[in-house]
């Protein structure tokens, strides 16, 4: 039998039995879900993402839905939040207009989102992660990074086995399935978790990283959205392998700091650390436009919706931030960041938005922008956030109103209530963005 130190070591994800180097099924339980990899016992950065999260929670709570195509969504904008894997076979995708989804899959059961429930389940899963290590960095309601380096003595198991047991525990105790990516860095752990969904477990080792990336599209790189991919395409770059042949100097000359990111990530070089809650530097959301925008009204509308996204993430993680950061990127990729420190930490969309607006005001000078982002830094837990403001009575009223809106959204979904700023102004819903690369 292969030992833990043997590069041929493998194990069964179902019964955890150690495996011989050969054989497609577990010699103990017969399961085909075997994990083998030469770096299996060396890798310690994991990314976990729940499978079809909202839909899976609804299926769990109503077994009649189990084999049916289920779509979560609706609300005013009428888009799909998520679809279960049965509905995905018919072509239903997140962010698709509901009428299109129902054309593709007329038998689908449509369920309005129950955000309060999903936040609660997300927290339960996060707690299970924290049972493994305090080094848990949530990225969204259904996903997080874990750094398991140095936990082997505690768990008497290498990270790969700890994560396989974790995914079994989530299935058993929460009733949901997750997919796990395991690697030596965040960039590849996240790619890996998406590679073998649902119920997946993928491993990308250091030795294979460059080859693995070579034939993948540049959009796989963190921060390369549609607009930037189009710019690269114009320069004849579509595949990560092409970036691997380019030097740092020319890449930076052409694309600024983004060039450095392309250089490093294309080669699988990513030294960002997993930052547990409270230690993470900021929570932010940004969007790159299909066409550059210079008008105040359009920017403000998008800023409002991004502020709400940031606020939702802060509230879900029970944290608040004291410094509001506005980020703009001009059409020629020049970055402008502007900060303002508040008197006390906030997690309210309204305060983030108003501060962002006043920072934005000074930047409206006819320049056209390709990206806007808003975030907060100086994070702390939410105990001291947004104290009742004795001076600004209006602000208190707005905070109360926001609490009421949150409750409605908790009940009926994020799109149930739209404020005057976003209503009707946004053509495409802004995407959540990855955090900045160090
Ligand atoms: P994702 O993890 O992106 O998607 P998912 O969990 O539904 O499916 P997958 O198996 O591919 O991971 O998002 C988590 C939840 O966030 C998702 O269940 C619903 C919500 N969401 C939206 O509301 N709108 C969106 O456009 C996306 C992508 C997700
Ligand atoms: Mg998911
Ligand atoms: Mg996710």
For the structure shown, list the relevant keywords.
5-stranded mixed β-sheet, single chain, 438 residues, DNA-directed DNA polymerase activity, alpha+beta, Alpha-Beta Plaits, 4-stranded antiparallel β-sheet, binds thymidine-5'-triphosphate, 4 domains, DNA polymerase, domain 1, disordered C terminus, globular, 22% strand, binds magnesium ion
Proportion of residues in β-strands: 15-25%
Q: Determine the structural class based on helices, strands and strand pairing.
A: alpha+beta
Describe the main β-sheet briefly. 5 strands, mixed
Proper CATH architecture of the largest domain: 2-Layer Sandwich
Q: Detail the poorly predicted runs.
A: 424-438
Verbal overview:
Its EC number is 2.7.7.7. One of its GO terms (cellular component) is cytosol. Belongs to the DNA polymerase type-Y family. It comes from Phyllobacterium pellucidum. InterPro entries: DNA/RNA_pol_sf (IPR043502), DNA_pol_Y-fam_lit_finger_sf (IPR036775), DNA_pol_Y-fam_little_finger (IPR017961), DNA_polymerase-Y (IPR050116), DNApol_IV (IPR022880), IMS_HHH_1 (IPR053848), Rev_trsase/Diguanyl_cyclase (IPR043128), UmuC (IPR001126). The protein is an alpha+beta fold and 438 residues long. It folds into 4 domains: 1-36, no CATH class; 42-207, Alpha-Beta Plaits (2-Layer Sandwich); 210-266, DNA polymerase, domain 1 (Orthogonal Bundle); 282-412, DNA polymerase, Y-family, little finger domain (Dna Ligase, domain 1), CATH 3.30.1490.100. Helices cover 36% and strands 22% of the residues. The chain has 15 helices and 15 strands. The protein has helices at residues 53-61, 85-89, 98-104, 115-130, 152-155, 159-173, 186-193, 209-214, 226-234, 240-244, 248-255, 257-266, 296-316, 349-361, 393-412, and strands spanning 10-12, 18-19, 34-36, 45-50, 70-74, 79-83, 109-111, 136-140, 143-147, 178-183, 201-203, 282-293, 319-330, 335-346, 369-381. It has a 5-stranded mixed beta sheet with strand order 8-9-4-10-11. Helix 11 (248-255) packs across helix 12 (257-266) and helix 13 (296-316) runs antiparallel to helix 14 (349-361). Residues 424-438 have low confidence and may be disordered. The structure holds thymidine-5'-triphosphate and magnesium ion (MG) (2 copies). Residues 49-54, 81-82, 94-95, 141-143, 197-198 line the site of thymidine-5'-triphosphate. One magnesium ion is lined by residues 49, 140, 142-143.
């Amino acid at each position: 039998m292969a030992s833990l130190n043997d590069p041929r070591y493998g194990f069964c994800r179902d019964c955890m039995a150690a495996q011989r180097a050969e054989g497609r099924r577990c010699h103990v339980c017969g399961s085909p879900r075997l994990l083998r990899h030469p770096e299996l016992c060396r890798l310690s950065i994991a990314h976990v993402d729940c499978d079809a999260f909202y839909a899976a929670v609804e299926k769990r709570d109503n077994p009649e839905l189990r084999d049916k195509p289920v779509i979560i969504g609706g609300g005013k904008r009428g888009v799909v939040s998520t679809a279960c894997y049965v509905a995905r076979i018919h072509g239903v995708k997140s962010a698709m207009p509901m009428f299109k989804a129902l054309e593709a899959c007329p038998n689908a059961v449509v369920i309005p989102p129950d955000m309060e429930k999903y936040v609660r389940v997300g927290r339960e899963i996060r707690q299970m992660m924290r049972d493994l290590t305090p080094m848990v960095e949530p990225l969204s309601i259904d996903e997080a990074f874990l750094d398991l380096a140095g936990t082997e003595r505690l768990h008497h198991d290498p990270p790969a086995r700890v994560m396989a047991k974790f995914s079994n525990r989530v299935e058993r105790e929460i009733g949901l399935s997750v997919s796990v990516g395991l690697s030596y860095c965040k960039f590849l752990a996240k790619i890996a978790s998406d590679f073998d969904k649902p119920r997946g477990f993928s491993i990308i080792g250091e030795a294979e990283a460059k080859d693995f990336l070579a034939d993948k599209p540049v959009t796989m790189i963190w921060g390369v959205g549609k607009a930037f991919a189009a710019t690269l395409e114009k320069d004849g770059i579509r595949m990560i392998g092409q970036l691997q042949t380019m030097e740092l100097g020319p890449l930076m000359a052409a694309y600024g700091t983004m060039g450095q990111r392309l250089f490093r990530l294309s080669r699988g070089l990513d030294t960002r650390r997993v930052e547990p809650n409270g230690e993470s530097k900021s929570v932010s959301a940004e969007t790159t436009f299909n066409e550059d925008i210079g008008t105040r009204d359009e920017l403000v509308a998008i800023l409002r919706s991004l502020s709400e996204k940031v606020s939702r993430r802060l509230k879900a993680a029970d944290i608040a931030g004291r410094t509001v950061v506005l980020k703009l990127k001009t059409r020629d990729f020049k970055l402008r960041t502007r900060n303002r420190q508040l008197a006390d930490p906030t997690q309210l969309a309204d305060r983030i938005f108003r501060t962002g607006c006043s920072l934005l005001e000074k930047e409206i000078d006819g320049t056209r922008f390709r990206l806007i982002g808003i975030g907060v830094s100086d994070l702390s837990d939410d105990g001291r956030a947004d104290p009742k403001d004795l001076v600004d009575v209006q602000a208190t009223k707005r905070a109360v109103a926001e609490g009421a809106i949150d409750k409605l959204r908790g009940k009926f979904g994020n799109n149930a209530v739209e404020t005057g700023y976003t209503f009707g102004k946004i053509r495409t819903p802004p995407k959540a963005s990855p955090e900045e690369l160090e």
